[in-house]
Amino acid sequence: MSIAADTIAAIATPAGAGGIGVVRVSGPAVPAIARALLGRRPRPRHAHLTDFRASDGSLIDRGLLLYFPAPASYTGEPVLELQGHGSPVLLDLLVRRVCALGARLARPGEFTERAFLNGKLDLAQAEAVADLIAARSEAAARAALASLEGAFSRQVQALFERLVTLRVQLEAAIDFPEEEIDFLADPALIAGLEVLRGELAALQAAARCGVRLNDGLRAVIVGRPNAGKSSLLNALAGSERAIVTAVPGTTRDVLREAIELDGFALSLADTAGLRETDDPVEREGVRRARLELERADLALLVTEAEHAEGDLALLAEVPAAARLVVVNKIDLDGSPAQVQMRAGVPWLWLSARTGEGLDALRAQLLRLAGAGGEGAFSARRRHLLALDAVAAALSRAAEALGAARAGELAAEELRAAQRALGEITGAYTSDDLLGAIFASFCIGK
Ligand code: GDP
Ligand code: ZN
């Protein structure tokens, strides 16, 4: 536990007027500041109703003062919470008063950064604080809360400990090269590594799902002009944001629509389609569409019955992880709404105009967005990259151990894996990483 030299203060409630506003203060000067405001020693964790006064004695506001001594506080430092009326003007005066008493304005995320530095939460949990605040759907909020409670960190920590045990075992085996027995060929060692790789793969899958819950499913709608892409987007979003016209090629820019489907966040992009064109404006649209596609979780091809087979080529050039085909405008030819699997890709017949068959599409989207996943927690792309690095190192370790009996090499890979895993929880970090993570927080958190 380390206590910072300076004391920080910020308005912790959202900008603007509200019923109640909270000023939060953390650091070594807090006991003195609390005493100055209250006129006596505050009782720990007790709500004191008091007058907040400026240095000239004039009344700023009347509200509650709560004092949390270290280390049982959010930051691990002495913390003061001042609850007043939710007026930006009054709260500003209150912050200025606290600063006059020895605090300075906090940077974004600085309270949570101190909580991390004092071991109150690890880095993945600290990130979950920001994700919880930013959650755009009920599922995202629930997942972020699970991560904040340590659902993800505990699994990372368990893997970390197993990895250390395995590395110690391996290093012990290396230390006895003259022995009769080939310790490096110990089946327990090799089997242990395989089990670890299996568990890592499961955690990777769960974390991928966690990123999707956090960011929302990123879907891209592709298809020929006039297939009904904008109409479908509008039907799903239940709004009229995309411009629907009968003129081909009107959707020139990439249009993103964030919608919440049954509590799950879904981000849909309508693209200009991917056809070759000489029109520079339209070419720009195609370029942006391709960029969208590279980041998408799902590509959704919208087509019509008579064009379906020909349009399939569009889907082939999409790098997205999952694909769906929508055969739109069934109201025109009277075909029934249905779902068929073709070469592993679900095909859905529906009408964006009448809404027939739209529920089946919603169900498919929900499944892809992570609905029905048990024990879900939130994760970030940064975590996925770290887990990828762990997997790569473990795979190289297995190779070194299996074929070449290269113990030193394998041990080095296990150390690299341990490092990458430790980056998730913050056991290993750089100032740059911490700076980047906490700078994206809001002030007062
Ligand atoms: P986009 O170019 O792929 O975005 O296509 P739009 O959504 O702009 O639609 C092109 C035309 O097809 C418009 O006139 C729509 O009203 C029409 N359209 C879209 N979906 C349907 C549908 O399900 N049934 C019918 N009959 N017309 C549709
Ligand atoms: Zn369109």
UniProtKB/TrEMBL annotation:
Residues bound to (6S)-5-formyl-5,6,7,8-tetrahydrofolate: R24, E81, K120, K445
Residues given in the record as GTP binding sites: 226-231, 245-251, 270-273, 351-353
Top-rank taxon: Bacteria
Its EC number(s): 3.6.-.-
Main localization (coarse): cytoplasm
This protein's UniProt keywords: Cytoplasm, GTP-binding, Hydrolase, Magnesium, Metal-binding, Nucleotide-binding, Potassium, tRNA processing
Location of the protein in the cell: Cytoplasm
Gene3D superfamilies assigned: P-loop containing nucleotide triphosphate hydrolases (3.40.50.300), Probable tRNA modification gtpase trme, domain 1 (3.30.1360.120), tRNA modification GTPase MnmE domain 2 (1.20.120.430)
Any single GO CC term annotated in Swiss-Prot or TrEMBL for this entry: cytosol
GO molecular function, one term: GTP binding
Binding sites annotated in the UniProt record for K(+): N226, T245, V247, T250
Cofactor remark: Binds 1 potassium ion per subunit.
Known function: Exhibits a very high intrinsic GTPase hydrolysis rate. Involved in the addition of a carboxymethylaminomethyl (cmnm) group at the wobble position (U34) of certain tRNAs, forming tRNA-cmnm(5)s(2)U34.
Family designation: Belongs to the TRAFAC class TrmE-Era-EngA-EngB-Septin-like GTPase superfamily. TrmE GTPase family.
Subunit structure and binding partners: Homodimer. Heterotetramer of two MnmE and two MnmG subunits.
Protein name: tRNA modification GTPase MnmE
Species, as recorded: Aerosticca soli
